[in-house]
Amino acid sequence: MKISEKDLSRAVDALLAGEVVVMPTDTVYGVCARAQDEQAVQKLYALKR
User: Fold this and answer.
1) Where are the domains of the chain?
2) Left (φ > 0), alpha (ψ -120 to 50) or beta: where does 29 sit?
3) What pTM did the predictor assign?
4) 8 A C-beta contact, residue 27 and residue 48
């Protein structure tokens, strides 16, 4: 799966802003957050519950 440069840039901007990003793979979706941002990690844990 190819991700456009525009979409990649939007994902990076969102991660740097403390957001959670969903990224598709060939089989599943991955949910990620910036590990150095404690509030973003808490958002990630809240979504997983």
Assistant:
1) 5-48
2) beta
3) 0.82
4) no
